[in-house]
């Protein structure tokens, strides 16, 4: 049976009110009393109720973290960094995988509010959820415009695809395709398409956009990529994420298209996983550790100083190109 506060009080030889005061650090108590209560809590493996703490006006030290899926290496690494940084500041996380399901995300938001989390970090791909305007909690967003009142942290998406397009051009490609979501809905990631389009215009080339949705399965993406490579004369492809870029490399290999001689490919994300297991891929590297630090620091600042007005609504971090075998043949 789960131990109760009264069990701690009995074991420590104090009143239940004293145990509550120790847990909530309320009023003066001798160190001897505190030590007895903490020792009883350890022996009984008693965990204070976060909701009960919130009713006393205390922080729950819980943060809700909402992302589409941690099966994606980028989100997995980002969530890991966020969790580590929050843990180092005595916070724990409640992780919610929202996928592309609005109702699921709404349910998670309601659950986080019910659990009285101190704040939320959201990197969701679902848009048009009005609840974000009504949560009444400090929220920071990664790469998504959830509300006019929620600050956004992102990497330099515009410069990222500009660098990728230039890299492919300098490698000799002239029929450069953009492989990603062509829909512009006001998010920072929309700038990836704009970075490609602006660079193509400067190079006086013809833009080619091949639509692939982030939520599509690898099988559907592979079919679409195969169609692109067999029915169009693409000698360069700018991908909006590394997993899609790897599918392009696989399709090219199956179709006997030589990379980088006949086809140049650049991805986007540059996670440690990709760099270790697919070092052949040229990619745009997002500063994952810096993104996590900024998300956590902004959120904690909002938690600690909720009454202060936001000084900045958008934070953009620099990216860099990691050149490898998918754009230039590099000697070992």
UniProtKB/TrEMBL annotation:
UniProt GO MF annotations: DNA-binding transcription factor activity; transcription cis-regulatory region binding
Coiled coil location: none
Domain HTH lacI-type: 3-57
InterPro entries with a match to the protein in the record: HTH_LacI, LacI/GalR-like_sensor, Lambda_DNA-bd_dom_sf, Peripla_BP_I
Stored PANTHER family: LACI-RELATED TRANSCRIPTIONAL REPRESSOR, RIBOSE OPERON REPRESSOR
Protein's UniProt keywords contain Cytoplasm: no
Protein name, UniProt field: Sucrose operon repressor
Source taxon at top rank: Bacteria
Record key words, sorted: DNA-binding, Repressor, Transcription, Transcription regulation
């Amino acid at each position: 049976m789960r131990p109760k506060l009264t069990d701690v009080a009995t074991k420590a030889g104090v009143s239940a009110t004293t145990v509550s005061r120790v847990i909530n650090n309320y009023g003066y108590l001798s160190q001897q009393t505190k030590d007895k209560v903490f020792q009883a809590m350890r022996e009984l493996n008693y965990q204070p109720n976060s909701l009960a703490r919130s009713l006393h006006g205390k922080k729950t030290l819980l943060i809700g973290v909402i992302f589409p899926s941690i099966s994606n290496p980028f989100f997995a690494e980002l969530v890991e960094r966020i969790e580590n940084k929050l843990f180092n500041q005595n916070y724990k996380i409640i992780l919610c995988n929202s996928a592309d399901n609005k109702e699921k995300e709404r349910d998670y938001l309601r659950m986080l509010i019910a659990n009285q989390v101190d704040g939320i970090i959201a990197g969701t791909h679902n848009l048009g959820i009005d609840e974000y305007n009504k949560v009444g909690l400090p929220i920071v967003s990664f790469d998504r415009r959830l509300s006019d009142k929620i600050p956004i942290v992102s990497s330099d998406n515009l410069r990222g695809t500009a660098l990728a397009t230039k890299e492919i051009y300098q490698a000799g490609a002239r029929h450069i395709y953009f492989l990603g979501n062509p829909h512009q809905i006001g998010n920072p990631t929309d700038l990836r398409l704009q970075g490609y389009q602006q660079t193509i215009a400067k190079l006086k080339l013809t833009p080619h956009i091949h639509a692939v949705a982030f939520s599509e399965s690898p099988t559907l993406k592979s079919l679409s990529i195969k169609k692109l490579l067999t029915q169009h004369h693409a000698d360069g492809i700018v991908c909006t994420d590394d997993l899609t870029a790897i599918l392009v490399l696989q399709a090219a290999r199956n179709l006997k298209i030589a990379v980088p001689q006949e086809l140049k490919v650049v991805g986007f994300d540059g996670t440690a996983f990709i760099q270790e297991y697919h070092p052949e891929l040229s990619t745009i590297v997002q500063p994952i550790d810096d993104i996590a630090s900024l998300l956590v620091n902004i959120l904690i600042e909002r938690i600690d100083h909720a009454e202060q007005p936001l000084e900045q609504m958008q934070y953009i971090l620099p990216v860099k190109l990691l050149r490898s075998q998918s754009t230039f043949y590099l000697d070992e």
